[in-house]
Structure formats: structure tokens, C-alpha cells
């Protein structure tokens, strides 16, 4: 009996179809273009919060291209049980941005690097043991996590929209105008284009915003001084520091990311392969994210995960050929040896990035709402979602409420709404009675 992959007639829509490298290259490039901006934006935001000099920030961005390419190749062609063997494209995850910004503001970037490395090991172990713990994280918990991630990023997007945290001209008319033009360009492109072109709306907004910033004299060219045509990515550019609070905080987020991967692999197999993922594929995908995140820490970057943009692209094009998407991963690796790419992105004014990403963060919230709807609006699910989001978002906005707790507890939870919402959702899911109890109670009141 043939598998769904073998039933397809086109090699592009077959997981292991035979296709020449050059014929598949344009489709691989399309996958890279769909995630390129979203891959680098988290690094740019955290580097700005860490107040890195332009050359250092550009170096981290350059390394980010390398680890994204290596992670994509690992997911396509696994090593042992590490990697999903699925048409996944990995990139730097937005899940960790809010926590990383908070940590670098108080403790420095080395603490983030240490937390990335140790946390990556946690996710690697979670992947190899996924068949055991998966039942403790039902869809409603995953939905709450994704929703809280979106809400936690709104302030990050707003800060960029105004010109970047700590900017002397924050909130100036120049910054607000530039951000608005970039946002309108993204929206216009998305509304006026069709098919796969819609995936490039953020890139179009960045190009328009960059052109306007050049005309307004708001582009910083200092990163282009003494720029080499080709250079090797740097290993261990930062000395890792290991702080217990930061490690636990990131470890919780790695658990959250593992839950996201379960949703991503399920969605990818459903839209691209017309089946559900196997236990081996799901656990391998989680372990792959953990392994490449450890490598990412050694290159001074943030953790990686599979990108939803590329799952959307698969849904539209049905291109799932591993060799095709592997060519995209190789393009990312090659791009990491060209520092000019990182320098161009690093010269972007924060306002341009804010205008292009603020809607992206809103889309994460809406994705969470859709996941809640898919989990079902039962009384039990409504209670879990309402309680966890209220406590997670509300308490961390008034973080003085944690004043009586030990310092370690405060460092993990006081400003991290994702971690709080996740813990509350897990506890509520374990503690609350079944839906039948809610129905009986409701009838009793009548």
C-alpha cells in the first residue's frame, strides 16, 4: 500500500520525490523569503534592548542566519532521533523575546546565552520523552500559551513602533510616520496580492520603510564601515553566564515551545501530507529544536523553532519535497557568510521594524484565539482559558503583587506572563473536574 507521499504525482508535492537541485531552488528560495524577516527580527529586538554596538549586533544577526539554516537541514534529514524528517523550516523564535529583553535589561546578554544553552538541553530531553508527557498538555493549554505569547509581545512591538526602547527621539513624529508608512505598505501588499505572494508582505513593508528612512536621513550607516565581502560566523562571541532564575524562566518557555511544535507538526502534516504526524516525527521535531537551540547558544543567538509562516506556505503551494526545502536551508547557511546582509538589516530604523512586526504580533494572538475555538468552548475550557490569561497577563502587569515571594520566584514569574499563564493552565487542567461535572452543576442551578 502506498503512503500519501507516494500517491502524489508531482515531485514537488512528494516528500521524497526525485527532483533536480536547480529546479527546486526557486521553491526553496520562496520558503526562505517567507521567513527571512521573522527569523532576524527577534535578534534585532533583543540586541537593541542589550544596547549592542552595530558591529556586534550585525555579527549576531549573521550567526542567526547560520543556525536557522542548520536547524532546517537537521529537521529535514535527522541525526539519530533528533529531527522530524518533515518539510519544516526553523528560525529564531519570538516566544523568548519578552523574557530575553527583560533579562538583558537587568543582567546582560551573557545570562541569556547561558539560559539558551541549558534550556535547549531541556527541550532535547522533552523531545526524546514526548510520548510520556504529551497527555498532560491538552489543546486548551497550548492555546492559552500561544495567546499569552502574543499579548506579551505587544509592548515589544509598540516600543519598536515608537523608535526603540531608550531612544532619545522615542515617540517623535518622524518615528511614528516611518512606522505608519511601513505598516500601511505591509497591509496594502497583503490586500492587493494573491496566493503565495502574500507571504512576502512584511518584506515589502521593510523595503518601502527602508527607502523612506533613507529619504528622511534616518538610516545608520556605521555598520558598513570596514565591511568584509565574506566572513566566517563567530563561535562563542559571548561568555555564557548561568543564572538560576533565567534558566528556569527559559526552561518553562522551552516547555511552551515544545507544545507549540506539537501543534506545528500536526498542522504541517495535515495541510501538506494529508495525515497526522507519527510519534517519531513529533518527538524528533521537538528534539531537533532543542538540539539546534543549544548550537544557537554557542553562536550567541536565541532559541529556534519551526516557523508557522512556512506551514502557511505549504498549505497554499503543497510543496513538501525535502530536497527542495533543503536547498532553502543551504541558502540560509550561505547567506550567513555574507556580512553585508546582516549589516543592511541592522541599519534598519527600529520604527520600520515596529511598523512591520506589530501586526505579526497581533496575528499570534488571533492564532491563539483560533486554537481556543478548535479546542472547544466547553465550560471547562472557558474556565481554564479565562483563569490562566487573567492571572498571567493581569498579575505580571502589576508585578509588585509578587513582592512577598522569594527572589528566585520573582525573577521567573513577576514579568513573564507566558510562564505564569502556562503554569496556571496546567494546574487548572489537572485540578478541575471533567466537563460532565460542569454540565451537572449548570443543570442543578436551573
Characterization of the model:
This protein is an all-alpha fold and 446 residues long. Helices cover 69% and strands 1% of the residues. The chain has 19 helices and 2 strands. It has helices spanning 4-7, 21-49, 54-76, 97-106, 109-128, 130-133, 139-161, 173-192, 201-216, 244-272, 279-298, 308-317, 322-335, 339-346, 350-375, 379-397, 407-413, 417-431, 435-445, and strands spanning 90-92, 304-306. It has a two-stranded antiparallel sheet. Helix 3 (54-76) runs antiparallel to helix 11 (279-298) and helix 8 crosses helix 15 (350-375). The radius of gyration is 22 Å and the shape is globular. The termini are far apart. Mean pLDDT is 85; it is low at 1-8.
Sheet with the most strands? 2 strands, antiparallel
Q: Give the overall silhouette.
A: globular
The amount of helix comes to 55-70%
Number of helices: 19
Cα radius of gyration in angstroms: 22 Å
**Average pLDDT score:** 85
Helix-strand topology string: HHHEHHHHHHHHEHHHHHHHH
Work out the strand percent: under 5%
- The multimeric state of the shown protein is single chain
Separation of the first and last Cα atoms: 55 Å
Order of the strands making up the biggest sheet: 1-2
Low-confidence stretches: 1-8
Give the tally of β-strands: 2
Amino acid at each position: 500500500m502506498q503512503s500519501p507521499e507516494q500517491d502524489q504525482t508531482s515531485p514537488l508535492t512528494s516528500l521524497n520525490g526525485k527532483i533536480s537541485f536547480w529546479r527546486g531552488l526557486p521553491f526553496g528560495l520562496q520558503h526562505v523569503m517567507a521567513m527571512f524577516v521573522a527569523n532576524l527580527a527577534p535578534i534585532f529586538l533583543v540586541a537593541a534592548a542589550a544596547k549592542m554596538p552595530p558591529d556586534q549586533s550585525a555579527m549576531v544577526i549573521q550567526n542567526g542566519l547560520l543556525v536557522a539554516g542548520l536547524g532546517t537541514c537537521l529537521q529535514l534529514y535527522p541525526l539519530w532521533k533528533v529531527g522530524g524528517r518533515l518539510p519544516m523550516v526553523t528560525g529564531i523564535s519570538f516566544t523568548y523575546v519578552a523574557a530575553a529583553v527583560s533579562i538583558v535589561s537587568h543582567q546582560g546578554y551573557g545570562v541569556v546565552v547561558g539560559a539558551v544553552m541549558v534550556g535547549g538541553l531541556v527541550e532535547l530531553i522533552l523531545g526524546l520523552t514526548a510520548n510520556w508527557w504529551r497527555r498532560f498538555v491538552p489543546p486548551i493549554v497550548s492555546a492559552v500559551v500561544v495567546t499569552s505569547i502574543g499579548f506579551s509581545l505587544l509592548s515589544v512591538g509598540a516600543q519598536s513602533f515608537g523608535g526603540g526602547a531608550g531612544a532619545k527621539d522615542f515617540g517623535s513624529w518622524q518615528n511614528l510616520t516611518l512606522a505608519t508608512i511601513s505598516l500601511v505598505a505591509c497591509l496594502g501588499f497583503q490586500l492587493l496580492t494573491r496566493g503565495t505572494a502574500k507571504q512576502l508582505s512584511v518584506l515589502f513593508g521593510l523595503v518601502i520603510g527602508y527607502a523612506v528612512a533613507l529619504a528622511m536621513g534616518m538610516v545608520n550607516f556605521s555598520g558598513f564601515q570596514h565591511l568584509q565581502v565574506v566572513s566566517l560566523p563567530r563561535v562563542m562571541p559571548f561568555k555564557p553566564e548561568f543564572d538560576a532564575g533565567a534558566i528556569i524562566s527559559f526552561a518553562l518557555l522551552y516547555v511552551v515551545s515544545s507544545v507549540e511544535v506539537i501543534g506545528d507538526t500536526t498542522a504541517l502534516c495535515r495541510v501538506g501530507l494529508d495525515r497526522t504526524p507519527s510519534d517519531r516525527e513529533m518527538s524528533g521535531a521537538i528534539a531537533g529544536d532543542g538540539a539546534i537551540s543549544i548550537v544557537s547558544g554557542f553562536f550567541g543567538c536565541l532559541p529556534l523553532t519551526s516557523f508557522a509562516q512556512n506551514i502557511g506556505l505549504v498549505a497554499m503551494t503543497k510543496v513538501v519535497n525535502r530536497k527542495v526545502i533543503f536547498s532553502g536551508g543551504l541558502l540560509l547557511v550561505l547567506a550567513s557568510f555574507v556580512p553585508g546582509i546582516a549589516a543592511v538589516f541592522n541599519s534598519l530604523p527600529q520604527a520600520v521594524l515596529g511598523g512591520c512586526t506589530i501586526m505579526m504580533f497581533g496575528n499570534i494572538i488571533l492564532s491563539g484565539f483560533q486554537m481556543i475555538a478548535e479546542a472547544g468552548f466547553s465550560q471547562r475550557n472557558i474556565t481554564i482559558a479565562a483563569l490562566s490569561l487573567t492571572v498571567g497577563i493581569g498579575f505580571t502587569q502589576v508585578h509588585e503583587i509578587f513582592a512577598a515571594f522569594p527572589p528566585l520566584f520573582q525573577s521567573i514569574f513577576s514579568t513573564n506572563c507566558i510562564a505564569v499563564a502556562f503554569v496556571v493552565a496546567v494546574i487548572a487542567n489537572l485540578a478541575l473536574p471533567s466537563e460532565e461535572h460542569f454540565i451537572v452543576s449548570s443543570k442543578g442551578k436551573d
